[in-house]
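Quick one, tokens below. Sequence please?
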């Protein structure tokens, strides 16, 4: 039986041979797909030069996720709402209508909401990277949400944001060893509190991908502990009951 880790986010999924399955086997509750729009298709890759026509968002993520829901009732056992974070690498305005068409067959599985309510589904879609905030904020209802930046929280769009993410080293000069300063601990605590008060999740990217880094995130109450090291992080979490 898989040991599920409710705060585990698989970063850089594209680096794995089976990006979704490897994360699921490690017990993760969130995955990240980097996409480009190429010849009308949403292709998964971190760099444009690495796109391959068979590695579509639907083939690697959407279709197998639906199959798991049909078979088991959820993408990951014990995770009622599984997060699929989609990092749009470029041209969000062009990507959004193609993504919406791609999601049409999966609509009944998706979380949806408006400015005043939110209904969880088996899959929550959150867009990061080049984010079409203006277009989605204009919708009365939506089943695609946005990964905010801290600047966005100064005037939060009701119902649009489901998570806030920041680059670690843009705010905290801790490089993997020793203690972080009291000033940085206070900033981190405030960051998590602001997200919690808005009812959204918190995340960082770019911090040392080590047990020391994961421990800081856990102690601060950061919602998602992201990693490229699926098995190592899963073992670390299991040892701590996370």
């Amino acid at each position: 039986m898989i040991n599920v880790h409710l705060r585990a986010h698989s970063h850089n999924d594209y680096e794995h041979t089976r990006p979704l399955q490897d994360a699921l086997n490690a017990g993760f509750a969130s995955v990240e797909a980097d996409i480009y729009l190429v010849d009308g298709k949403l292709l998964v890759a971190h760099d444009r030069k690495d796109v391959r026509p068979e590695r579509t968002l639907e083939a690697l993520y959407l279709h197998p996720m639906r199959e798991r829901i049909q078979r088991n009732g959820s993408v990951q056992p014990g995770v009622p709402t599984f997060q699929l974070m989609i990092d749009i690498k470029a041209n969000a305005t062009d990507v959004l209508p193609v993504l919406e068409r791609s999601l049409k067959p999966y609509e009944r599985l998706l979380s949806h909401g408006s400015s005043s309510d939110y209904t969880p589904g088996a899959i929550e879609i959150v867009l990061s990277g080049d984010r079409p905030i203006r277009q989605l904020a204009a919708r009365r209802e939506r089943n695609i949400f946005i990964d905010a930046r801290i600047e966005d929280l100064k005037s939060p769009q009701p119902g649009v944001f489901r998570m806030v993410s920041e680059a670690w080293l843009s705010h905290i000069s801790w490089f993997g060893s020793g203690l972080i300063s009291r000033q940085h601990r206070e900033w981190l605590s405030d960051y998590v509190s602001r997200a919690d008060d808005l009812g959204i999740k918190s995340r960082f990217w770019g911090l040392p991908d080590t047990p020391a880094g994961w421990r800081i995130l856990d102690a601060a109450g950061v919602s998602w502990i992201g990693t490229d090291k699926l098995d190592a992080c899963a073992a670390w979490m299991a040892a701590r009951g996370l």
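Helices lie at 19-25, 57-72, 92-103, 133-137, 182-198, 211-220, 230-239. The chain has a mean pLDDT of 95.
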